[in-house]
């Protein structure tokens, strides 16, 4: 467990890894992110919850610059987000993203999905990239699927490949946007287990999810969003047992 034991050293380090300062974003007349201040510490697991349409996905997408922002700033490990080019490609590799829809390259094998970025963006040689890909695929429990195409895998297996693909880039932080929402119920746990293991290994994670069991057991902090704002932030125990805002109380009463 050398190359694949992610970010263990990060846990020991201190400091702010992702910092959003007064971030604002509009889609036309819709003020989708309103004065978002959010700091994610190294090794921290932050679960973002809130009603549909509250801006959770947009928030994730701004952090790896799939969306631009209108005002405010975002820094990753002390550096502002690059606008374009090679620097942006590297930033996106530093910020691993796992989406609701698995987003694997359909015409590449599982193994190729996990080696491509390493070779192209990280300039790892092909043999090393393959070794690392196989180790990561084993780690997420899909080592036997390496030579198959994504469509030949179950949703849960595809999502675990997507996690392995992101990890292969040695990201500083992993973003998960409802990673289990598109899965059949029996596959949800196999993905959550991989995520829990990652959290225990010290990975810095931002996780948008409706899986409150995961939030309770793996999160250091819960961030509750509504209408483009962060309404409440608290430790999971406190948030679930004693939410302060009416919006959070109302939301929890509907989902718990
Ligand atoms: P959530 O992930 O919390 O459900 P989103 O960030 O996806 O919320 O969306 C927040 C709001 O922004 C919603 O009203 C949505 O319709 C709108 N929205 C999201 N993406 C776009 C876009 N590309 N163009 C216009 N409106 C968008
Ligand atoms: Mg969303």
From TrEMBL:
This is Amino acid ABC transporter ATP-binding protein. Keywords: Amino-acid transport, ATP-binding, Cell membrane, Membrane, Nucleotide-binding, Transport. It is found in: Cell membrane. Residues 18-252 form the ABC transporter domain. Belongs to the ABC transporter superfamily. It comes from the Bacteria. GO terms for molecular function: ATP binding. InterPro entries: AAA+_ATPase (IPR003593), ABC_ATPase_HisP-typ (IPR030679), ABC_transporter-like_ATP-bd (IPR003439), ABC_transporter-like_CS (IPR017871), MetN_ABC_transporter-like (IPR050086), P-loop_NTPase (IPR027417). SUPFAM superfamilies: P-loop containing nucleoside triphosphate hydrolases. Its main location: membrane. It comes from Streptomyces ardesiacus. It is a peripheral membrane protein.
């Amino acid at each position: 467990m050398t190359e694949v034991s992610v970010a263990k050293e990060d846990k020991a380090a201190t400091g702010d890894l992702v910092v959003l300062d007064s971030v604002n974003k509009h889609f036309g007349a819709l003020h989708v992110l309103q004065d978002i201040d959010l700091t994610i510490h190294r090794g921290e697991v932050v679960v973002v919850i809130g009603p549909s349409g509250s801006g959770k996905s947009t928030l994730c997408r701004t952090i790896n610059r799939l969306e631009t922002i209108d005002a405010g700033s975002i820094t990753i490990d002390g550096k502002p987000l690059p606008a374009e080019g090679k620097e942006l490609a590297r930033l996106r590799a530093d910020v691993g993203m796992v989406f609701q829809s698995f987003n694997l390259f359909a015409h590449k094998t599982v193994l190729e999905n996990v080696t491509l970025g390493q070779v192209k963006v990280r300039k790892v040689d092909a043999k090393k990239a393959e070794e690392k890909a196989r180790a990561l695929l084993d780690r997420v429990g899909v080592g036997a699927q390496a030579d198959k195409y994504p469509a030949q895998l179950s949703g849960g297996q595809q999502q675990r490949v997507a996690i392995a693909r992101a990890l292969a880039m040695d990201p500083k932080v992993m973003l998960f946007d409802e990673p289990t929402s598109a899965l059949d119920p029996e596959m949800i746990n196999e993905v959550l287990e991989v995520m829990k293991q990652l959290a225990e290994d010290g990975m810095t994670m931002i996780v948008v999810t409706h899986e409150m069991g995961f939030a309770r057991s793996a999160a250091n902090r819960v961030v509750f969003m509504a209408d483009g704002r962060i309404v409440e932030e608290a430790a999971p125990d406190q948030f679930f047992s004693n939410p302060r805002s009416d919006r959070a109380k109302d939301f929890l009463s509907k989902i718990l």
